[in-house]
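Protein 1 of 2
SEQ + STRUCT:
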Amino acid sequence: MNTRICYLYRDSDNYKVHNMCVIHGELTDSQIDQILECCDMGEYFIPSQVGLPERKFDEFDSERDHCWFELNRDGFESCNQEADTFLTAEQLTANFQACKNNWRDDLAPNGMEGPTL
């Protein structure tokens, strides 16, 4: 069994892009709790910083776009689907724990440091 994870990108105009990936292994309820506890305000995270793919809109608009995605308990589901990421359940949980209270929202979309104001 593997785990399908569904998460959402929503720009400031409320346009949405649904994201989905499958990791190796099944996340336990305890691991899901740990992951959600690591999210900013309990639901916001930056997929690229934990090793998950990110899909947004084709063109970046600095007025509407940002780095945050939404994740909630309903976004985790055990499945028989093949994994499409290199991550295991344990690695993903550890990656979230490493980002807890340390999300880098100052990075530009290409991963470089953003401008200082």
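Protein 2 of 2
SEQ + STRUCT:
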Amino acid sequence: MPRYQRQGVHRWKQDEFVFDNDMLANEGLVHLHVNGKRLTSLLASHEDLVELGVGHVTAEYQSFDPALIDVEVEYGKDEAKVDMHGPFDVENWTTRDRVVTTSCGACEHDALPAMLATSNVVNAVHPVRHMHSIEHAFQAMKSSQDGFRMTGGLHAAGLLYEGDAVRVMEDIGRHNAVDKIIGAHVLSNEQHEPHVLLLSGRCGWDIVAKASRFNIPIIASIGAASSLAATAARASNITLVSFLRDGKAVIIGPLKDRIKAKD
């Protein structure tokens, strides 16, 4: 499946409908398998699927050494299959027989305490970040969002490292973009731990849970944080920076020894 497809549309301009073409981001099913056993199915963009599979398993189940696994990707017309082979304890993992749209595991819980209990307490210690460095990282991420510029329909997630290095991935789903950037980090054998998870949209509980399992101390989003994201962040010792734009932001969670207002 190509990354984009051109479709006929009508545009409403100056009180008239005008026929035109528009570029749309493709979306299709991705079936994740571990050692031949189906783990789950996602709706996702059909590129960077190795990173998606590795990141999903890392963020949802466990961390692992990428040198010990082998990943195979099979592409169909509208579907793709990612099969990861390695020393996984799949028998203790929760599998999902339906297509999930958040990939966060919330559908397995019927009460908030059970959901919050799946998050870890972040204990990462990094040099204090300045708000301007996080804002500059957003600009670097924005300049890397080729899919969004082409279609306006792809989310981005980025990781900010020491020295202001930024790595970025895109997907039709916010949670998939986060899985892909985590997978890209794991597969890169990057020696430095990420300081900040960057989001092109809003931040919900599902993304806080993923960040906590990956020990990321700061999440910065261009959009809002939900109330449950805020609750989970406080419980996980994560700092949320939301509505970050034009030299302004809303901060939830710890500031001391983590972020400063200016250089």
